[in-house]
Write a structure and sequence with these properties.
mainly beta; 373 residues; Pectate Lyase C-like; 25-stranded mixed sheet
Length: 373
C-alpha cells in the first residue's frame, strides 16, 4: 500500500524519521490536481498581466502593434545602449520577422537588441526556433504573451548539448511567460537521425546572477526542463535564482537538474511525466564536481508526481570532505513516487543539512545510500 510520509534528515547529524502522517498515493495525486490552479503557471500571479501592461505602454507611445511585422521599423530603432537616435526600451520580436518556419534569427535579434524589454507575441502559428542565447550584457525582461507557443524547430538541435534558451554568465534577467509554452521535440531526439543525448535542455542557466523565470510551461525537452550549473569548471555557480509558477512536463532526463546554485528559490511548481534517461527524476540535486556549491536552496509549494524515476533525487557522491556544506530545505512539497518518492546517495564525508520535514512523500523513501548518519 502506498503511503505518504513526512521525513526529516540532516546530513552528518542523524534526525530520525519522525512525525509520520500517512495517506494513500491516490490522495496525494488528488492534492496535486486540486492545487493545479494555484501551483504552476497560475493566472492570478502578480506578473501574469505583464505582457498586457507593456503592450499598452507601446500603444501609448505610438509604436506599431506588437504582432505586426515591421522590419523597417525595427531596423530604424537605435536602442538606449547604442547612442543617439530614436530610443526604445520595449521591442517586439515580431518586428524582426516571423514566418513560423525558422524564426531563430528574428528571436535572437530581438532578444539581443539592447532593449530592456522584449515581447514575444502570440502569432497565428507557433514560433519555430533553433537555439537561443541571451548574450546582451544589459538587464533584460523577456515577456511572452499568454497563448504564445515557441517550438524547437523540426530537424534542429543536432548537437548533443543544444539548448533552446541559454542564460550564460548574465545578470538581471527576468523571463515571464504566464499562459505561454516552450516545447521541444523529445520523441524526435530519441529517434533515428539523432545521436542520443541527455543534454538538450529547454532552459539552461549557467554562472548567472539575479535571474527569475516564471509562469512558463516547459514541455518535452531532450534533457532537462531547467538546468542550473556552472558555465565551466571552477567558475561561479548561478546565484540569486528564482523559478516560480512553472509547469515542467515530459522531459527526457529531469524536470529540473541542480548541479550548482546558491540562493535558489523554487516555488509553486508542477513537475511531472519525466522519462527517457536515468535518473528520470522530477528534480535531481547532483553536482558534477566537489567544487560545485549547493547552498541556501529552498523548494516550496510544489507537486512532483508521475515521473519514471524518483520524484526527488539526491546524488552527492562526488563531494569531498572539503566541499562546501550543502543547505537544502523543503516546504509543503508533495513527492509521489513511481515507485520511489525520494532517493539519496550522500556519503558520510558530506557536510551540511537537508531539511526534508516539508516533504510529503508517497511511495518508497530510500535513504539506504546515506552513510554514517
Amino acid at each position: 500500500m502506498w503511503r505518504i510520509a513526512f521525513v526529516v534528515i540532516a546530513v552528518m547529524v542523524l534526525a530520525s524519521f519522525s512525525g509520520c502522517h500517512s495517506v494513500e498515493k491516490e490522495e496525494a495525486i488528488a492534492v496535486c490536481i486540486e492545487r493545479q490552479d494555484t501551483i504552476g503557471a497560475r493566472r492570478d500571479a502578480p506578473n501574469s498581466d505583464l505582457y498586457a501592461r507593456y503592450a499598452d505602454e507601446l500603444r501609448d507611445d505610438g509604436a506599431p502593434d506588437p504582432r505586426s511585422l515591421r522590419l523597417e521599423f525595427a531596423s530604424s530603432l537605435v536602442l538606449p545602449d547604442r547612442g543617439l537616435g530614436i530610443e526604445s526600451e520595449i521591442v517586439s520580436a515580431a518586428w524582426y520577422g516571423f514566418d513560423g518556419i525558422d524564426d531563430t534569427r528574428a528571436l535572437n535579434a530581438a532578444i539581443n537588441s539592447g532593449a530592456s524589454v522584449v515581447l514575444i507575441p502570440a502569432m497565428e502559428a507557433p514560433w519555430q526556433t533553433g537555439p537561443l542565447e541571451i548574450s546582451v550584457a544589459t538587464p533584460l525582461t523577456l515577456v511572452f504573451e499568454p497563448g504564445t507557443m515557441v517550438e524547437a524547430i523540426e530537424g534542429g538541435y543536432e548537437e548533443l548539448d543544444d539548448w533552446l534558451l541559454t542564460i550564460h554568465d548574465r545578470e538581471d534577467i527576468h523571463v515571464v511567460g504566464y499562459g505561454a509554452e516552450i516545447r521541444m521535440r523529445k520523441d524526435d531526439y530519441r529517434g533515428p537521425g539523432y545521436e542520443r543525448s541527455q543534454w538538450r535542455h529547454a532552459i539552461a542557466i549557467t554562472g548567472s546572477e539575479r535571474v527569475v523565470v516564471e509562469g512558463l510551461t516547459l514541455t518535452a525537452s531532450g534533457g532537462d526542463g531547467v538546468y542550473l550549473g556552472v558555465s565551466r569548471p571552477w567558475r561561479r555557480p548561478p546565484r540569486d535564482i528564482v523559478l516560480r509558477d512553472l509547469v515542467l512536463r515530459d522531459h527526457h532526463r529531469q524536470g529540473i537538474t541542480v548541479v550548482a546554485a546558491v540562493d535558489l528559490l523554487m516555488e509553486n511548481l508542477t513537475i511531472t511525466g519525466t522519462w527517457g534517461h536515468l535518473p528520470a527524476a522530477g528534480i535531481d540535486f547532483e553536482p558534477n564536481q566537489p567544487t560545485e556549491h549547493q547552498r541556501r536552496i529552498v523548494m516550496r509549494n510544489t507537486c512532483i508526481y508521475d515521473n519514471r524515476g524518483p520524484a526527488i533525487n539526491f546524488a552527492f557522491h562526488k563531494y569531498k570532505s572539503w566541499s562546501f556544506p550543502i543547505d537544502i530545505s523543503f516546504e509543503n512539497v508533495v513527492a509521489v513516487g513511481k515507485p520511489t518518492a525520494v532517493w539519496s546517495k550522500i556519503p558520510g564525508r558530506v557536510r551540511g543539512r537537508i531539511d526534508a520535514s516539508g516533504i510529503m512523500a508517497a511511495g518508497i523513501t530510500d535513504w539506504s545510500h546515506v552513510t554514517e548518519f
